[in-house]
Amino acid sequence: MTETQKQNNTDWATRGAYWVKTAPEGASTTDDLNQILIGLAGIEPGDKVLDIASGAGDPAISIALKVGPQGSVTAFDANPEMLDGARNRAEKMDLSNIGFEVGRMEALPFDADSFDAVTCRFGLMSAEDPVSALEGARHVLKAGKKAAYMTHGSRAKNTLFSVLRPAVLAFLGEEDDGGVERRYRFSEEGSLETVFKAAGFTNIEEREAAKTVIKEKGDRFWQTMLVRGFGARIEGFEEARMEALHGSLEKAFEPYLNGDQYELLSTDMAARGTA
Questions:
Q1: Domains of the chain and any CATH numbers
Q2: Would you state the pLDDT for residue 12?
């Protein structure tokens, strides 16, 4: 394991507890993104699916509901702390067709031709070698079956993250170290298509998934992302300081307030390829 991989594992081990804390208890609260992947991968009832970088369970939980009791989904992630959220959700929903395995996406521990589909939501950006990761996905897919991956769109087209992070860092009196730039690694049009092609996939399709998210005034809609991104650093805040932080964030999002509603742009990139 390289030093970069070790550092990534350490980072996610620390953040994992906060992701579990903020994960939905049951069905996904962002299921529209899961359904995009399910559709792109051509997943049908009875299929055997591998979901890479499952984290707290998206899209693995939605896939388990789609494939039904005759199918199965393997939720795969490098960090066991992250999978705890997915496991808890599956148990609460009585889903018995989902399994959990820990490992790196560049070294999938599965036989060739094992799966009817492979999915990955917001994981490829963290791969040390994305081409190798996709080659592995193609290897474990049955011939003619599809892999579907989703990554974040550009910073400019994702209001919540692009506003929240600098606002929190300013409140903490810190400079941005640029450590999140990998988040936008495949945000440019054609970048996912390029890496799919390099990995040997055919019939590659790439698309942008953009929407405007509406949030009501007074709704601290940033809470989940705040906890996931900065949980360890704000956990000990006294109530007054926490309220001051929320006040700073409310001010930062004021430009996106239209009447009594916030209008926030959210954009992701998705691609699929055939093995």
A1: 3-274 (3.40.50.150)
A2: 60
